[in-house]
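Fill in residues.
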């Protein structure tokens, strides 16, 4: 099987890598906000600040989920020729392509998260 990626496919891969990096950053910020929330939750007089931190963590998690969805939509057409199927970027008939794109996106985001966590540690 000889698969050659076009310039558009490489562009999609590059954009996906950027979105995965942003998603990992959002996860890192949500984890940090969760740690801060846990530290200040029980302090008297800090309930307002704890609520703000919790709201910020939820915003980062939603941003991460949206970035993951966008990454899946961008990465799916690149993965379609690997299965021997013709290129059709809007075909909803093959959920396996979406599952593969989701798996790759989550795995790469996790690896990027641990790399960021290790770098700031």
């Amino acid at each position: 099987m000889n698969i050659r990626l076009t310039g558009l496919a490489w562009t999609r891969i590059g954009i996906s890598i950027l979105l995965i990096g942003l998603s990992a950053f959002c996860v890192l910020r949500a984890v940090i906000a969760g740690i801060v929330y846990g530290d200040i939750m029980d302090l008297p007089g800090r309930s307002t600040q704890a609520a703000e931190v919790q709201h910020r963590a939820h915003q980062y998690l939603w941003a991460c989920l949206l970035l993951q969805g966008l990454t899946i939509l961008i990465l799916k057409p690149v993965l379609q020729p690997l299965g021997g199927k013709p290129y059709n970027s809007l075909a909803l008939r093959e959920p396996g392509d979406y599952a593969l794109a989701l798996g790759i996106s989550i795995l790469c985001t996790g690896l990027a998260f641990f790399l960021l966590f290790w770098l700031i540690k």
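Residues 72 and 103 are 9 Å apart (CA to CA).
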